[in-house]
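User: Study the chain.
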Amino acid sequence: MYQNLQECINDLEKHGHLIRIREEVDPYLEMAAIHLKVYEAGGPALLFENVKGSNYQAVSNLFGTMERSKFIFRQTWQSAENVVALRNDPMSALKHPLAHARTALAASKALPLKKSRLPAGFEEITISDLPLIQHWPDDGGAFITLPQVYSEDPDKPGIMNANLGMYRVQLTGNEYELDQEVGLHYQIHRGIGVHQTKANQKGEPLKVSIFVGGPPAHTLSAVMPLPEGLSEMTFAGLLSGRRFRYSYVDGYCISHDADFVITGEIHPGDTKPEGPFGDHLGYYSLIHDFPVMKVHKVYAKQGAIWPFTVVGRPPQEDTSFGALIHELTGDAVKQEIPGVKEVHAVDAAGVHPLLFAIGSERYTPYQKVKQPAELLTIANRILGTGQLSLAKYLFITAEQDKPLNTHKEEEFLTYLLERIDLHRDIHFQTNTTIDTLDYSGTGLNTGSKVVIAAYGDKKRELCQEVPELFKGLQTFQNPRLVMPGVVALEGPSFTSYERAQEEFRAFSETITQNGELPSCPMIVVCDDSEFISKNINNFVWVTFTRSNPSHDMYGVNSFYENKHWGCDNMIIDVRTKPHHAPPLIPDPTVEANIRRLFEKGGSLEDVRLP
């Protein structure tokens, strides 16, 4: 396997998975725009040989397709999969010790290897020397998008208790002193937060090392949710087929395999404004105070290459990360939550906002189940587990007469909507935590959740076209069928929640006066019904990134009974609100400028754009 990033690039190029871009390209918006076009086309990895303003080359789209990702890890994937499976189910090793002996040996050989000094070929540079890539027009500056951020537990120092995570790093802009400070954005449920809390309690700065590049296995290790007791550095060695080599310089851990290393300290209470940044929900995450890292030293190895990705409305390259993680750890949630068959964080909705799950109903096998029971227990476990706890919407059901697949989104939702009892099956959690990057809630990290748990016999036939009742309405117009049982309507621009409540009260009265609509359990009120109904990806993206369940869900004939809310038809208001973050829109001038690369004679003339 690869000892460094250069070997990976050579291998990809040899097998037709990489194109070199020889033209000079501007790191301000152009490199990101090129990457987005090539990713959308399902194209190859890109090596930018001539980055304006920097002496270093840059590479992107390494993980742009699952085929290429699996190709990169083709020699070590199975052993890594075996080790993760063994960690998830340690009892299997006791039951079948001989079968797992080789797996345990592979893990032991992947233990990190400590060296005595900085490796030859490393030179000290500055932040200004790096490819300072700005991805979106309104970004606050240049960011590292594939960092491996290393920190150690102040109470238990050493590499085996360290954390390696991928937290974005802002290099320029805002109030950061160039070459002296960088911004470190990490969200809740992150290992580095535990380390910083302990350092703060001791009144000490937290030493941090940021590794960029190295074998692709190191990058993937920084985003892996690993089983307890399996360190990211051990997993990096396992997946790369080579032990993670490191040493300490000035008290900072230095990865010998990384292309670049930035070292520095985070001091207690020291924050600065970070952002905006075009993020994975398809919007800008806005400016907020996050820890500032005082830069100690920056290193680059000889011939270093800067890897990057571009984050935006999904699917993007980080979609492959999610797919790889699912393949390696797919059964982990089953081990952790009894009764779960499948949990799918829907990528097209930005991952965190929307979960589809399949559970089981085993509480009373001697009776015909009349309503969800075990499903609600499972739902609470899901929303209390790691990153899954950041979800806003959880749709959960159980199989009955045929198998279900949560990755077939329309089919799954159809099955659930056919069975939902809208008077009983909607369960809210208010004033709770949501994803830091989600601005649909009531504040940073703050919003609500809803569990929609449906089970039992089919209750309705879903409408296959727009019901006549929706045609000719005054306030809500241009009805479009999104999928069976779901209709989108355009509403007037959102002004306030007080006004919205009046609008939906009047809408409910109109529907009631004209008869019931059991065939349409979900109504979506939006700004553009044609866009939202164009495909399932548009529907889930707009609906579940632009709504806060407690504030934006309404109902026809809604009621409260013993503090439980129900309705005849659920309405989700997904119109843009004043507090929402703006969506990501490419710069048209940049889009025109990069066409030169795709024209005859350009480096990317063979890439067929959609």
